[in-house]
Specification:
The structure is a single chain. The protein is α/β, with parallel strands linked by helices. It has one domain (2-253): Rossmann fold (3-Layer(aba) Sandwich). It has helices spanning 16-24, 76-86, 109-122, 135-145, 172-183, 215-221, 237-240, 242-253; strands at 2-5, 45-48, 62-65, 90-93, 128-133, 151-155, 159-162, 165-168, 199-204, 225-230. β3 (62-65), α2 and β4 (90-93) form a beta-alpha-beta unit. The longest helix has 14 residues, at 109-122.
């Protein structure tokens, strides 16, 4: 699943059962305390940008966050394609405890959302298109529900060779310690509000992460939602059907 939202228009996402869990499990409100007093991290990223001034778009950049156990390299090909087609500056980022980003003991969606907001501040980005897959989709949904005014739109891949040998780029310990309940379910937080922008959720027809029976629950938090299903695609819809995914993405970006 992936998610896209616009503060002034519409949004997309790829993980419906997450929102359903958030709606039906208010006990997860305790997660709001996990983000208090935390220091944001500077996320590692790869940037794709046109060199010819006539090809550079003045539209907001696209920022893409991968799923759990992934990295920014998962989106290298699609990041290039989006930049080539639209002329927009594209950033693919590594979430904390993933890829080349710093490792920390804390790991939950409020922190991932605030890391994204810190990234925008670091790069002086006042408006952006945020796109995330799976865990990344939940993170950008969290940004939307925080009602940050700078966000215009959201569109809801690990070994490192060192002198000591091959090591995980992932912070496996932090991910394991925080998986339940901070990552396995989507939290309901006191600071979250309903996202009133137009929202679109995209899922693979063969995936059980975005299910038609979850649509009503999703609309509790995203009342102006639309849902799109790509045929013969699973959870990794952007990898299973990249051409169909990009075609849909571009139509929603216009």
């Amino acid at each position: 699943m992936e998610c896209v939202l616009r503060s002034t228009s519409r949004c997309l996402s790829f993980h419906s059962h997450i929102t359903r869990l958030a709606v039906t499990q208010p006990k997860n409100r305790q997660l709001s305390t996990k983000s208090q007093g935390y220091e944001p991290i500077s996320m590692a990223y790869t940037s794709f940008q046109q060199t010819g001034p006539e090809k550079i778009s003045k539209e907001p950049p696209v920022i893409i966050m991968h799923g759990l156990m992934g990295s920014k390299t998962n989106w290298k090909s699609l990041g290039k394609a989006i930049n080539a087609k639209t002329g927009r500056h594209v950033y693919t980022v590594d979430a904390r405890n993933h890829g080349d980003s710093p490792h920390t003991s804390q790991f939950c969606y409020p922190l991932l959302a605030k890391d994204i907001l810190f990234f925008l501040e670091e790069h002086s980005i006042s408006k952006a298109v945020l796109m995330g897959h799976s865990m990344g989709g939940r993170a950008v949904m969290s940004v939307a529900l925080m009602q940050d005014p700078s966000i215009r739109q959201f569109l809801l891949t690990n070994l490192n060779n060192t002198e000591e040998g091959y090591k995980w780029r992932l912070n496996i310990e932090a991910i394991a310690n925080n998986f339940n309940p901070f990552i396995s379910t989507f939290p309901i937080l006191d600071e979250y509000e309903r996202y009133e922008g137009e929202t679109a959720f995209i899922g693979g027809e063969l995936s059980d992460y975005l299910r038609r029976e979850d649509e009503e629950a999703i609309q509790e938090l995203f009342p102006h939602s639309s849902f799109h299903y790509i045929e013969r695609a699973g959870h990794w819809v952007h990898a299973d059907k990249p051409n169909e995914f990009l075609k849909l993405f571009f139509s929603l970006l216009d």
